[in-house]
Structure formats: structure tokens, C-alpha cells
């Protein structure tokens, strides 16, 4: 029993560190923070996600949090990949401003991480299973 509690605690700490690291990456990538801030954020985010993945089955609650985050990320990336170009093409056709493919290539990773953490922490804030 104590081992599962330790794993759940590690998972919780890793989830908060992952969220903070993702925030650091966003600050560096989009808001002009130093690049080293973003690099450290990516490294911490990678380690946090590995720890979260390794401890995802610590108990039923942690498993449900992981499942919600993973399902949200999967649905978001499928929607982005299927409907993103359609919406972009419709908008450019409607406004008659054709300027090629303007969806950035790294936006898929951003969409997945935002959706994962949004689903994960929304479930955590709501509580329950």
C-alpha cells in the first residue's frame, strides 16, 4: 500500500513540474523569455512526462487522470489534423487571402500538450473518477 502511495505522489509532483515546464517553454517560445529557459523547460517536461507515464497506474485515481489527459490529447490532435486545414482553407477562401499553408509545423506538439494538460488538470480540479 505504501508503495502505491509513493508512486501516486511521484506522479502528482511530476504532473505539476510538467505543467510548470510547459509554461516555461511557452514563455520562451511565444513571449520572448530567454532561449535557455525554454530548453530547461523542454528537458524537465520530457523527464516529467516519462515519470508520469511510468507511474500512470499507481492507483485508480491517477489512472483515470492519465486516461483523461491522453484521450483529450488524442481527440485534439485528430481534430487538429483533420479540421485544421479545412478551417484554414475555408477562411482563406472566404477572405480571398490565399497565402499557402500557414499552419506551423510545430503546432501539433503544442496542441497535444495543451490538450493533455487541460484534460488532466480539468479532471484533477473536478475530482472524482
Q: Quick gist of this model?
A:
The model has no long low-confidence stretch (mean pLDDT 88). The chain has helices spanning 2-30, 35-54, 60-95, 107-126.
Overview of the molecule:
With 129 residues, the chain is mostly helical. 81% of the residues lie in helices and 0% in strands. It has helices spanning 2-30, 35-54, 60-95, 107-126. The mean pLDDT is 88.
Mean of all residue-level pLDDT scores = 88
Helix segment count? Answer: 4
- Largest sheet geometry: none
Q: Which range does the strand content fall in?
A: under 5%
Euclidean distance between termini CA atoms: 20 Å
Q: Note poorly predicted spans.
A: none
| Rg from alpha-carbon coordinates | 18 Å
H and E string: HHHH
Bulk shape: flat
User: What share of the residues lie within helices?
Assistant: over 70%
Give the total of beta strands: 0
Amino acid at each position: 500500500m505504501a508503495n502505491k502511495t509513493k508512486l501516486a505522489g511521484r506522479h502528482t509532483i511530476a504532473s505539476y513540474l510538467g505543467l510548470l515546464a510547459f509554461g516555461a517553454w511557452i514563455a520562451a517560445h511565444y513571449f520572448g523569455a530567454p532561449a535557455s529557459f525554454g530548453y530547461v523547460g523542454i528537458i524537465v517536461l520530457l523527464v516529467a512526462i516519462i515519470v508520469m507515464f511510468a507511474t500512470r497506474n499507481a492507483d485508480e485515481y491517477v489512472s483515470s487522470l492519465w486516461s483523461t489527459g491522453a484521450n483529450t490529447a488524442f481527440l485534439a490532435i485528430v481534430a487538429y489534423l483533420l479540421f485544421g486545414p479545412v478551417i484554414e482553407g475555408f477562411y482563406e477562401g472566404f477572405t480571398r487571402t490565399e497565402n499557402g499553408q500557414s499552419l506551423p509545423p510545430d503546432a501539433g506538439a503544442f496542441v497535444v500538450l495543451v490538450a493533455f494538460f487541460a484534460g488532466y488538470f480539468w479532471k484533477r480540479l473536478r475530482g472524482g473518477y
